[in-house]
Amino acid sequence: MSSVPRFIGVAGGTAGGKTEFARLLENVAPTGAVTVITLDSYYKRRDGTPLEERARLNYDHPDALDIDLLIDQLRELKAGRQVKVPIYNFAVHNREDGHIPVAPTKLVVVEGILVLALAGLREFFDLKIFVHTPDDIRLVRRIDRDIVSRGRTRESVIQQWIATVQPMHVQFCYPSREHADIVVSGETDNGDLALDILKRYIEF
Questions:
Q1: Domains in the chain, ordered, with CATH?
Q2: Using a CB cutoff of 8 Å and minimum separation of 24, what contacts does 99-102 make?
Q3: 93 half-sphere exposure, CB direction, 13 A CA radius
Q4: How many whole angstroms separate alpha carbon 16 and alpha carbon 153?
Q5: pLDDT tens column, 134-148
């Protein structure tokens, strides 16, 4: 098998299970065979923007992301070179100063709400997956997650959901499922599917 990494894109609505599916691919693979990159790491740096203003920005629109940097880094990984993935801090809505070094592996999984919505990014993927979960379940999960891990209040999560999260899901994320090779449910155990996918791309 070629040493050139293979790429899988995993998209789906916020709190829909796409991160869990991407990590499942990593966990059932041999150690060091799979790398997971999250689109959230590539939110633009906004050092000159006050915190209160950063909190009001629309983070579910493609313009919030530094897609050019991600595409450049995927090209580097494809060429066999290590990259420096940014570190994003959701509590302050900005990047941190450090980075995470990421080396190319046999399989690189990129997950995020807009992974299949952006044509320039889509073209990298050998396999495109969309994880579908009903809106009401995603909202409940989002509230729980953001309160526990991102320091948000229930009211702020709901307000953001109404103002930007769900409208952007309808405009950008959900329509991107038409580009998926596989649509899976974010409510079920996808372990067997993950293993089948890995056997398709990795020899073990």
A1: 6-193 (3.40.50.300)
A2: 100/41, 102/35, 102/37, 102/73, 102/77
A3: 16
A4: 20
A5: 999 999 999 999 999
